[in-house]
């Protein structure tokens, strides 16, 4: 098993999530600060989307989570408690897909394919209100914003991190409350079929990403590690993050010009939004790894 040690790139954020690389730029969700942030190679932060002035639908708090770019250059952002996907253009956010009739609970991560189809995960219950975990499906958002439930995914237990393989044929997701990574074949119409086990895990997973060899990097918030699994569950590599300094490892993503830099999002406070904002303990870490992300999504 290969081992790597992460270094801190930047800190001072709320709960960080969904690290991404797009068009030569690294960015992530600074969730409770309601913004999307880009970091330079030296850790200098730039806010690229700020939703603090947005009034949430139905009075819901505006919390940014999953993101992805459409072919026309617009950035999609999932607004967790509003249960909508927003499209951002020239700094202005508008509802792209309204998922309120489809989502049982807060929506979560998202992957956008090269064709512009988005797959959105959801918790299925309200973690912040102390509700019990419940199964919930993945939601498919077609180019243009029309949305539907992905048939055959209704049994998923807290699908969280989500990614699409380099050839666009396979979708993987971390089932947080089943301690496993699962995979589906992607059909010509975007539907998901042939549900199967990708890797059985020994604790709750959060975010994940794929690399060009079809392996998955999985972030484990409880133990503060990021582990690379082959399809089938073999452990291939691990990135260590100092938990005392970083807290929980929430998500990971491959970036850099060669996509061999594994970015890791970390934080200390997920339950109390205001405490997370005020504490500013969220951080981003990175490690150089052996295999590129290639053309995988996100």
TrEMBL record:
Residues 15-265 form the SMP-30/Gluconolactonase/LRE-like region domain. Residues 277-298 are annotated as: Disordered. It comes from the Bacteria. Keywords: Hydrolase. Pfam families: SGL. The keyword Kinase does not apply. The keyword Hydrolase applies. Belongs to the SMP-30/CGR1 family. This is SMP-30/gluconolactonase/LRE family protein.
């Amino acid at each position: 098993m290969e081992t790597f040690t992460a270094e801190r790139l930047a800190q001072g954020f709320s709960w960080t999530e969904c690290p991404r690389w797009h068009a030569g730029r690294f960015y992530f969700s600074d969730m409770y600060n309601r913004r999307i942030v880009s970091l330079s190679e030296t850790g200098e932060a730039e806010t690229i989307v700020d939703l603090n002035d947005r009034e949430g639908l139905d009075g819901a708090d505006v919390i940014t989570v999953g993101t992805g770019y459409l072919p026309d250059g617009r950035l999609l952002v999932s607004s967790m408690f509003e249960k909508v996907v927003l499209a951002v253009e020239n700094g202005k956010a508008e509802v792209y897909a309204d998922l309120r009739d489809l989502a049982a609970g807060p929506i979560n991560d998202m992957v956008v394919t090269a064709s512009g189809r988005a797959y959105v995960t959801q918790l299925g219950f309200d973690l912040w209100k102390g509700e019990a975990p419940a199964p919930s499906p993945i939601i498919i958002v077609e180019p243009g914003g029309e949305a539907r439930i992905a048939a055959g995914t209704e049994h998923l237990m807290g699908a969280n991190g989500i990614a699409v393989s380099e050839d666009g044929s396979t979708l993987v997701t971390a089932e947080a409350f089943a301690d496993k990574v699962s995979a589906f074949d992607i059909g010509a119409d975007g539907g998901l079929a042939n549900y199967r086990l990708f890797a059985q895990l020994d604790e709750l997973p959060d975010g994940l990403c794929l690399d060009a060899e079809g392996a998955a990097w999985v972030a484990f918030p409880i133990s503060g590690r990021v582990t690379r699994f082959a399809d089938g569950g073999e452990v291939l590599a691990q990135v260590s993050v100092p938990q005392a300094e970083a807290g929980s490892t929430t998500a990971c993503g491959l970036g850099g010009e060669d996509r061999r830099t594994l970015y890791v999002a970390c934080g200390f406070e997920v339950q109390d939004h205001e405490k997370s904002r005020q504490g500013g303990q969220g951080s981003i870490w990175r490690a150089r790894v052996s295999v590129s992300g290639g053309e995988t999504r996100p």
